[in-house]
Model the fold of this input.
Amino acid sequence: MKAVLLSVLAAATLTVASPAHAQERHFGIMIDGGLPDGANASLIFRPISNIRLHAGGNYNAISAGFRAGLTVAFDWLVSPSLTVEGGWFLPGDANSLIQRLSGDPEWSMSALEQFRYNYANAHLGLELSTWRLTLYLHAGASMVRTSFNDVSFALEGVSDQSDAQDTSNGFTPTVEFRTAPRLRMFIPSAQIGLVFYL
Done:
């Protein structure tokens, strides 16, 4: 009977202490997926037990990019967390993605041929840790910024209508942009991911 009690106590102690064992490890790898980040693979460095730094590459079905950030969490089996991070994507042709999603192989927009964006995330989360693994769900808000190199597509209808009205006067209105128009927006965002400590 005593041996059984000792075994149960040892198992319970190991279970409760699992996160502590993980906290002794300073390096790891992380994979996650979400919006606006896409799919991510990162390296982890933990200078102290409650702070986790990460940096790595990501892919959003259009182009590759980079992301880095910081997470603060407690040494608990189930812990709340706070994450701030930022990232960017290289230019890529978004037309191919829209064609696959819409099923229309002829769909094309010149402004999306060199589409890219950068973003900043602020997330609250819930993390479940055991031994070397941490499973997490983060959600919050993101600021996304992008620019368009060619906005002629948006002015085609206006130009056609203006041409029809002003041909008799020999005048055709034009709109010129000295720099590429930029768009900034705040959107809800979320991630689900896994950390493995080495």
About this structure: Residues 8 and 54 are 37 Å apart (CA to CA).
